[in-house]
Amino acid sequence: MVCMAETDVKKTVLKDVKIFKDLEDEIIKTNLCCSCGACVAYCSSQSFDVIKMEGYTPQFISDANEENCKECGLCYYICPQTNPLLKEITNKYKIKDELGFISDIVAAKTTDKKIREMGQDGGFVSTVLTYLFDKNKIDAAIVSEYDENRKPIPKIIYNKEDILKSAGTRYTISSNLLPLKDFYEVAEKVLEKQKQIFDINQLKMAFIGTPCQCRAVRKMQLLNISPTHTIKYVISLFCMENFDYSKLFELVKAETNETPATITKMNIKKNFYITSKGGDVNEVELKKFDPAVRNHCHECDEFTGRFSDISVGGSGAVQQNSMIIIRTETGEELITSLLNEDYIQKFVPKTMDFPTWKSKKVDLLRRMTTNKINKH
Ligand SMILES: Cc1cc2nc3c(=O)[nH]c(=O)nc-3n(C[C@H](O)[C@H](O)[C@H](O)COP(=O)(O)OP(=O)(O)OC[C@H]3O[C@@H](n4cnc5c(N)ncnc54)[C@H](O)[C@@H]3O)c2cc1C
Ligand code: SF4
Ligand code: SF4
Ligand code: SF4
Hints:
The protein is built from 14 helices and 13 strands. With 376 residues, the protein is of the alpha+beta class. The protein folds into 3 domains: 17-82, 2-Layer Sandwich (Alpha-Beta Plaits), CATH 3.30.70; 91-242 and 294-375; 245-292, Roll (Nuclear Transport Factor 2, Chain: A). Strand 6, helix 10 (211-222) and strand 7 form a beta-alpha-beta unit. The longest helix is centred in the last third of the chain and has 22 residues, at 354-375. The site of flavin-adenine dinucleotide has 33 residues, from helix 8, strand 4, strand 6 and strand 11.
């Protein structure tokens, strides 16, 4: 028999559990959702099948499905935009300030000619994935590819041959957590056939994503949510802001007359650089694209990706190099191996700059992060 006091406690606990309805009210309807896909991935992978991604917006599959919500609250907890678990992961990753824990900082570029051509900056990310596949340190990686309209498609790849399709930066949302939604169905078939892995728990994955997405991965890992326990490497891209696909390409068309079909590369440095298939580089003032910036990015306090093993960007590095922040032991081991095995070549500052090079780079990235936080 349940005594009165017990009933009261149970009611209080249940009342305190926030669920998808709260996620809708607090995050989605207030335009704070960064469309990472974590909530839908979790709910679907548990076969609760209550919510879906409609474009870039998570929502109930139907009114009837709203009734099926188990009220487990997990979607709310793992959302990178909510408060629960933030304190715990902040402590776990030794984060004390806006830049997060830095074990070391280096600049480097790939030694692979093809990756050099296709990569966004130093081709570091594609090189890391190549190394990890070469050495059997991963069986899969979560990346972002393009469809025929230059729309990002989040994807799990299982082979080194697919890496180059993900090279380059898409400046619009790629819901990189979403492929975990049907991970078990897809991965089991691929892995059994190609890699003779019969137990999914033996799989080793790398995750590439924006800082907010890496935060979602770390929240899920903290709760040991499958299959994030198989993610062994978390690599964050620096991220000043991200754009709405339709609004971005409307503005690109207005400013340059280029369309997704005529563009080969987009790059943000001081300004926005848009390269056409004919090889012309259109330079457009970055602030012209402000109306296309996603709302949640205005509220974002991350730039370098504090919850990663390694963070990577172009800011602060000389051309064709990547700026790399190493944060964890996993990250340290990875960089040491990449250098020792000549996958990447380290940038060596001039002798006169050497003593202050690292501190100047840290100062620059701190300034950029602070400016970002204050700008919005
Ligand atoms: C929206 C966005 C804004 C950025 N803003 C800045 C910035 O202000 N300053 C700065 O220094 N760097 C920024 N970056 C990072 C930078 O553009 C490069 O991605 C980074 O330097 C890695 O380059 P690379 O040559 O090592 O990567 P590559 O070898 O070219 O590999 C690129 C990797 O990025 C992944 N990727 C591409 N687009 C996306 C996306 N939309 N979402 C998730 N993953 C994606 C791909 O899957 C691939 O694995 C931004 C990246 C993104 C996605
Ligand atoms: S079942 Fe759980 S994960 Fe799915 S919507 Fe409801 S609260 Fe969220
Ligand atoms: S988990 Fe991701 S997709 Fe879901 S509400 Fe939060 S930010 Fe949006
Ligand atoms: S600016 Fe922040 S919220 Fe926007 S995509 Fe980048 S990390 Fe996510």
